[in-house]
Each structure stands twice: as structure tokens, then as C-alpha cells.
Specification:
- The chain is mainly α.
- It is 46% helix and 6% strand.
- The protein has eight helices and five strands; from the N terminus they run H-H-H-H-E-E-H-H-H-H-E-E-E.
- It has a three-stranded mixed sheet, with no helix packed on it. The chain has a two-stranded antiparallel sheet with strand order 3-4.
- The protein is elongated.
- It starts with a helix and ends with a strand.
- 18% of the residues are buried.
- The N terminus is likely disordered.
Length: 204
């Protein structure tokens, strides 16, 4: 958790983090005391937009105090049109180039921020076929069905391969500090999901 990281840096003597902590949680002047509340609960109760606003204000205060703090990378908004062309940063931004099946998976997970259980991915077969057909309109219907069938087949490695390709491609394009939120991730037995705030995804 972010505040746990801040506290760990603080007790190791990082002056910038100490100042940041004092700005967030004013304590006894001249002395930093151990937090008496669960800041994890506070963090969990905040939306992404609130967190980004908070961090921006803290950075501005630190700058005014003459203390530098490494800038946090800004989240990249995604703009997706009816043909599933993905632009980064704005409606006229650069296009995110992905192979058709890789993009199909990306679009599916962006459309389902609640996550998808891998063992139940066959229930998304029709949706995957619709997405893939739109992305690759010149593909024969039989080929569309065959390629999607491999994606949803629990005995096939196609899903894992395409997920790995997607995550690696995103690592090439996005800053390290934010790329995790754009990748398909999740523990075994739990839904796989893209953690990106849905408000940053615009369906044009």
C-alpha cells in the first residue's frame, strides 16, 4: 500500500517523505510519531481521481517549500472508437498498435473491469468473436470462431500467450510507475482484471 511505502521510507530517514507525511498527517511539531490509525483503510476508501488530486497537491506544497520530489507519472487515458482503434492520451493521440487477438483480449478486459474468471472465459466466446470480427473485418467467420475457440479453451495456451504479449507490449509503451494498472493480472483462482480506473477509458 502507498502509505505503508511512505512510512517505510520515512523511518529510514528520507526527508522528502517525512515532509510529505507531515503534510498529509500533521503531528507534534518537530517530531514524527508512529501513525495511530489504519491509513490502509483511508487509502482503500479513496477513488483514483482523489488520490491523484492529493498527490498533485502534496507535490505542489513540497515544491513551494523548496523540497524536490520525483514526479509521479501521469495516468494515460485511452480513447477507443467503434472499430476498437485505441488511442493513448487523447482522441488524436498515438494509436496503440497490437496484434488482432492481443487487442481482442485487451478490449474484452477493458469492457469488464470487474474481472473475468479464467475457468469461465468460455461464456465470453460470443463477445470475443464480435470484438475480433470488428478488429479484423476481412477474416472469414470460420477463422474467427477457430481463433476465439483457442482463446477460451482451458487446455490451450493461446490465452496465456496473448496475455504475455499484451503485458510485455504495454511495458514498452507506458511508464513503469503506471503500467501495472493497464496489464491483465490476477492470482490463480481469482478473477483476472485490468485495474485501470474505468473513468480513464473513453468509448467514443
Amino acid at each position: 500500500m502507498f502509505f505503508a511505502y511512505l512510512y517505510g521510507m520515512m523511518i529510514r530517514g528520507n526527508i522528502e517523505v517525512q515532509l510529505m507525511w507531515q503534510l498529509l498527517f500533521p503531528g507534534v511539531p518537530g517530531k514524527l510519531s508512529e501513525p495511530q490509525v489504519d491509513y490502509g483503510d483511508l487509502l482503500d476508501g479513496m477513488e483514483a481521481a482523489e488520490l491523484m488530486s492529493l498527490m498533485t497537491k502534496v507535490q505542489e506544497r513540497l515544491k513551494n517549500l523548496g523540497c524536490g520530489l520525483e514526479s509521479l507519472p501521469e495516468p494515460v487515458e485511452l480513447f477507443i472508437d467503434k472499430n476498437y482503434s485505441i488511442r493513448m492520451g487523447g482522441p488524436d493521440g498515438p494509436i496503440l498498435q497490437l496484434r488482432p487477438l492481443v487487442k481482442t483480449l485487451f478490449i474484452l478486459f477493458l469492457r469488464h473491469p470487474e474481472g473475468i474468471l479464467l475457468k469461465r472465459r468460455d461464456s465470453f466466446r460470443a463477445e470475443l468473436e464480435e470484438i475480433y470480427s470488428t478488429i479484423n473485418p476481412n477474416t472469414f467467420k470460420e477463422d474467427v470462431k477457430a481463433r476465439v475457440a483457442r482463446l477460451v479453451d482451458l487446455e490451450d495456451n493461446s490465452f496465456s500467450e496473448k496475455t504475455s504479449v499484451l503485458n510485455a507490449r504495454l511495458e514498452e509503451l507506458l511508464p513503469k510507475g503506471i503500467v501495472d494498472d493497464y496489464q491483465i493480472q490476477g492470482r490463480n483462482g481469482c478473477p483476472r482484471k485490468i485495474r485501470l480506473n474505468p473513468l480513464l477509458v473513453h468509448w467514443c
